[in-house]
User: Which sequence fits this backbone?
């Protein structure tokens, strides 16, 4: 027995065991997220239950669970949709109540711009008082037309009217700025110039609004009549339909195409319906941009700090104290950093910037409110210890012999640092950056008080000068998960979105890290073979 | 305790008088008096920790990097006091090159390693650098081996080649004195032989000071040898005299292998 222990085998088993448990848990988590995240866009068959009381329930099976204390008894969670009619998306059905079940071939799913999915049978096109029969094939051109119309309306609303409002706001601020100056003759001239500009804008705006009204009237022209499961008829404007499909009739390829289209929309589309439908592109964009700004801020800051600490501060009591404090900063709850960011960056610095540079916009704050810059800087502050520690390690890993080699050739300390030590410490520095990025990308709490919103009207980068708007509020995948999963009015319908958003967040972090790793390897190669 | 006469050497380039060196309170070098001749190979031998490396690191002031070091006495190179405040350390190190125990090429290309010193000195003209690089590599007997792959990382070379890169690197700044701190201790006999041949060649242009643990090496290549023990210079003389006719008992014990 003693001999057995001395061989070290039990310890090997112990270490291997902990590793296995670790891996299993991580794999389990990833599999759970992937299974749920990847499956939600797969079109499911629509089932029709005839119940004992004679009513009919139509929908997708969302979940099945057994009832306690009864054998062979289970209940089914059915996504019945038609929220505007039934008040909720889901309904529980006990299997004992089901008389028969079938999969009607002609049942249609309408994905709508509002109120979620509608399940039912297409009855026809509404005309005056009557109903003109309409096949699914006949619906396709109508849908195309309405989609075209939708794009046109969006273009006018977003781009043209957006342009006008943007210029209008600019003029309003310009006017206010002029008013803040002393009203001399010259200024008066400028004021009237701005006023005419504003009047012109107002006029164009009216015209655009008229066009929009006309378009909206046209949009309401076509309406289909849908027969619901309980025999009710529902009128659905074609303009409301994003897509209509027949899941019970679809083959494998059709389903695959549908799936890819949905996934594409998820990645590149904008969210709809309180974020429970549509895409997450603004959130992906916000996350990536925030992480990049954070990296730009944290790397030089952390590296310079570490260089001083390691190379110049020596090893006295104060230096040790600072080192311990920096390491301990990593243990401060992130929300505390958030509060600090709110107080320091937003109220103090942002407020100061507003007073100095944007007095005309007051009392509306420009920089004195949460925004992507402040959120990034807050996170940079939070991740500085990671970079500092990693850089210090990287600097320590450069052997004294190499430094001495440089000194012996007449190089000064700073030359040695720049030409030999830092290049060799770069992989360590970038490893620190990667860790910092990973931490920042997944952080939510400090963002909630420094600039994240559930729905940002515009991206922080657009075509208006100066193109990058660091003061803007932004969306973030991590916050999106929290918002969709726990703050949404329709939590049940949003659960799948939580998984998919998590998946996208993980993937985004992975891509960011991979990029950093590739850059690190490239740099390593460049430093070792290329001339500086 | 030991009183010795400073022996006369032809054309001394380095003159050391009453040199004491302390690491904190520990005295590491005691009353060193020594003249080192120009364009000869001078070797320092002695057991580990006897101060021979410390001494050569005084010649290019590399000991400045160690905070606790204090130095008394004087070291003159070409009549100029090395530790006088007027001395520019960069100039001094350009004049006194150094090669270390373990090959320590920078993780850069062969070319960038060799021209590192000239670049530090502010030479940036490509043609000048190319020329310096070629000359240095030729003198280090490495040109033929690496001329086609100057853009290869120096770390990809063998240990012996790396050490010769380090020698070339030291030569490229066109020094007067080259210090070598046990340059062959990490190398195999063939690489060692190559470096020894090269050092003998280098003697024509440079003053070579080599610290070594290998007494045969000292006997083979050096013109003068100094024997150190416990921070003292026990004996310094023409190499043949040291090895065939040592004046001191300790020297004889050491070279005959009775201790150390």
Assistant:
């Amino acid at each position: 027995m003693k001999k057995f222990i001395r061989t070290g085998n039990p310890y090997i088993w112990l270490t291997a065991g902990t590793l296995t448990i670790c891996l299993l848990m991580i794999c389990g988590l990833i599999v759970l997220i992937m299974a749920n995240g990847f499956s939600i866009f797969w079109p499911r068959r629509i089932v029709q239950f005839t119940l004992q009381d004679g009513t009919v329930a139509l929908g997708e099976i969302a979940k099945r669970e057994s009832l306690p204390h009864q054998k062979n008894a289970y209940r089914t969670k059915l996504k019945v949709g038609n929220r505007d009619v039934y008040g909720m998306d889901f309904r529980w059905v006990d299997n004992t109540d089901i008389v028969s079940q079938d999969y009607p071939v002609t049942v249609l799913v309408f994905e709508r711009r509002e109120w979620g999915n509608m399940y039912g049978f297409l009855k026809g096109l509404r005309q005056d008082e009557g109903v003109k029969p309409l096949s699914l094939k006949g619906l396709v051109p109508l849908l195309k037309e309405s989609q075209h119309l939708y794009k046109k309306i969006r273009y006018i609303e977003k781009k043209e009217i957006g342009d006008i409002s943007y210029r209008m706001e600019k003029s309003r601020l310009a006017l206010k700025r002029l008013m803040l100056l002393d009203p001399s003759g010259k200024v008066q001239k400028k004021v009237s110039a701005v006023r005419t500009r504003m009047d012109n804008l107002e006029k164009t705006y009216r015209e655009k609004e008229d066009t929009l009204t006309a378009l909206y009237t046209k949009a309401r022209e076509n309406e289909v009549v849908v027969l619901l499961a309980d025999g009710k008829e529902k009128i659905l404007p074609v303009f409301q339909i994003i897509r209509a499909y027949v899941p019970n009739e679809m083959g494998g390829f059709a389903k695959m195409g549908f799936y890819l289209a949905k996934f594409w929309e998820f990645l590149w589309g904008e969210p709809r319906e309180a974020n429970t439908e549509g895409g997450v592109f603004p959130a992906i964009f916000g996350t990536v941009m925030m992480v990049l700004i954070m990296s730009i801020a944290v790397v030089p800051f952390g590296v310079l700090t570490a260089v001083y600490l390691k190379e110049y501060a020596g090893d006295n009591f104060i230096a040790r104290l600072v080192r311990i404090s920096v390491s301990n900063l990593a243990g401060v709850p992130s929300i505390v950093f958030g509060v600090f960011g709110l107080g320091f960056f937003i109220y103090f610095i942002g407020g100061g910037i507003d007073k100095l540079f944007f007095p005309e916009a007051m009392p509306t704050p420009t920089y004195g409110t949460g925004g992507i810059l402040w959120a990034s800087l807050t996170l940079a502050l939070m991740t500085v210890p990671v970079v500092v520690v990693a850089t210090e390690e990287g600097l320590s890993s450069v052997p004294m012999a190499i430094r001495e080699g440089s000194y012996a050739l007449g190089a000064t300390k700073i030359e040695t640092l720049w030409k030999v030590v830092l290049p060799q410490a770069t992989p360590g520095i970038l490893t620190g950056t990667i860790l910092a990025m990973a931490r920042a990308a997944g952080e939510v709490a400090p963002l909630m008080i420094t600039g994240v919103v559930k729905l940002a009207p515009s991206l922080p980068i657009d075509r208006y000068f100066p193109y990058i708007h660091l003061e803007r509020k932004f969306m973030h995948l991590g916050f999106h998960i929290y918002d969709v999963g726990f703050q949404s009015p329709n939590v049940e319908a949003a659960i799948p979105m939580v998984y998919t958003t998590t998946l996208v967040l993980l993937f985004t972090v992975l891509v960011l890290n991979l990029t950093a790793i590739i850059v690190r390897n490239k740099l390593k190669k460049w430093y070792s073979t290329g001339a500086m | 305790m030991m009183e010795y006469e400073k022996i006369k050497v032809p054309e001394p380039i380095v003159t050391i008088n009453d040199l004491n060196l302390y690491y904190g309170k520990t005295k590491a070098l005691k009353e060193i008096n020594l003249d080192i001749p120009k364009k000869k190979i001078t070797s320092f031998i002695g057991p580990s920790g006897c101060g021979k490396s410390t001494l050569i690191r005084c010649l290019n002031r590399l000991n400045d990097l160690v905070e606790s070091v204090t130095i008394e006495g004087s070291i003159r190179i070409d009549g100029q006091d090395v530790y006088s405040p007027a001395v520019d350390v960069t100039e001094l190190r350009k004049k006194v090159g150094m090669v270390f125990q373990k090959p320590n090429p920078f993780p850069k290309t062969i070319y960038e390693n060799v021209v590192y010193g000239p670049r530090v000195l502010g030479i940036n003209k490509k043609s000048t650098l190319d020329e310096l690089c070629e000359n240095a590599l030729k003198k280090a007997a490495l040109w033929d081996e690496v001329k086609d792959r100057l853009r290869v990382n120096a770390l990809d070379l063998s240990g012996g080649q790396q050490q010769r890169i380090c020698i070339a690197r030291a030569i490229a700044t066109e020094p007067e004195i080259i210090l070598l701190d046990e340059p062959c201790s990490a190398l195999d006999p063939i690489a060692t032989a190559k470096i020894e041949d090269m050092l003998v060649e280098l003697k024509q242009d440079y003053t070579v000071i080599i610290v070594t643990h290998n007494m045969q090496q000292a006997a083979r290549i050096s013109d003068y040898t100094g024997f150190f023990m416990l921070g003292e210079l026990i004996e310094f003389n023409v190499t043949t005299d040291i090895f065939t006719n040592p004046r001191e008992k300790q020297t004889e014990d050491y070279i005959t292998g009775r201790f150390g």
